[in-house]
Amino acid sequence: MASHKFVVLQVTMDIVEQVPVEWTKDQIEFYKNESSSCANNTGRTIARVLERASVDGANCLCHRLKVAYVRDAKAEDVERDGLIVGRECLIEAGYEANGGYGD
Questions:
Q1: What secondary structure does DSSP assign to 19-34, as a single string?
Q2: CA separation for the pair 90, 93 (Å, rounded)
Q3: With a threshold of 0.90, does the pTM exceed it?
């Protein structure tokens, strides 16, 4: 059986959203990143794009999505994203029963 590990990836995706016509780049980025607008709102837009791409094969995401390696995952990354689903998963991730990932 092949060994596996968890890694942190950064995913960048181009999406189209509607904003007020008078907004500048700075206003849009402030609204999306620093205001009370919840990131889940953008997440819902991404989910709709992904759903459409899976239904309509012509909407492949290859030209719209970029993935970059950030680093090997730490225990808290794996736990935060709910990836620990059983003992086998922990063993495959290199999780030591007596001390976590050893980092």
A1: --TT--HHHHHHHHHT
A2: 5
A3: no
Q: Which residues pair with 10 in a beta bridge?
A: 68
Residue 12: C-alpha distances to residues 46, 65, 68, 69, 85 (Å):
11, 6, 8, 12, 27
Is the confidence at residue 25, as pLDDT, over 80?
A: yes
Query: What is the three-class DSSP state of 12?
Result: strand
Query: CA-to-CA distance for 65 and 55, rounded, in angstroms?
Result: 17
The CA radius of gyration of the chain, in Å to the nearest whole number, is 18
Length of the chain: 103
Instruction: List Cβ neighbours of 18 (8 Å cut-off, separation of 6 or more).
Output: none
| Cα(5)–Cα(90) distance, integer angstroms | 10
Q: Residues with Cβ < 8 Å from 31, sequence gap 6 or more? A: 19, 23, 37
